[in-house]
Amino acid sequence: MPQTHRSLRSSLAALLLAAPLLAGATCSSRPDPRAREQAAIHYDLGVQAMRGCDARAALNEYQRAVELDPQLDLAHNALALTYHLSFGDTDSAVRHYQKALEINPKFSEACTNLANAYLAQGRYDEAIPFYERALSDMLYKTPFIAENNLGWCYYKKGDAQRGVDHIRSAIIANPQFCLGHRNLGIIYGELGEPQKSADGFALYAKHCPEAADAHFRYGAALLKLQDTEGARRELQACIERSGGFEAAPKEGEERGCRKAQELNIVEDCQRYLRLLEQQ
Hints:
By secondary structure, this protein is mainly α. It has a domain at 175-244 and 260-278: Serine Threonine Protein Phosphatase 5, Tetratricopeptide repeat, CATH 1.25.40.10. Helices cover 69% and strands 0% of the residues.
């Protein structure tokens, strides 16, 4: 699934890393209390580093946390997220997601994240059962993320209708879920349905009005419909809101850490506007 943030790169340090440290922890093979306390401190330092957009510092802290307490499932999940989303190292991410689930089989966020890594690797058939496993957890706080990503997985696998159905279910569960609207816009655009694509991006821009990416995509879709005035309006909004590129970051990402992508979006908006002025 494209995830510019939100892919609009199914979640953040915010959704996953702020969870209580003792949630899901097991009692077997744990180190002494002092080591566990030190591991918790390094985990917290990693969270703070991610919030400050310092992925390398976060990686170091999470690595230290799992060295001190190899059974700290949250640290393995956080370490995996950092490998995956900040460094593109999905192989290392998969190992640590798997370790988090070995420690805590009911860790639904890690289920979704492992599926996301498989999705990024094109291992769709392996991803699907983990999305379904997360969705079967009635206590999972953000099932719409797994539902959306499952839909994207089916779409990438070649089953567009099933993919759309799952993404629509995610949006029904959370009508303000920007990534779901964005994904529908992308899918319909790739399927050659420009009006439905524009409708999806319109809802993306409506629910995430500060996201420059939303206005860019909506503006580009309106251009395809030959609505030049509407396109100009959205492209100008894209530039005005360039500070809000990642209004709906992917699970595990922090807002405001993707300035290079934001700059590319703004440059695209400016290029489209220049083309409109030449008409």
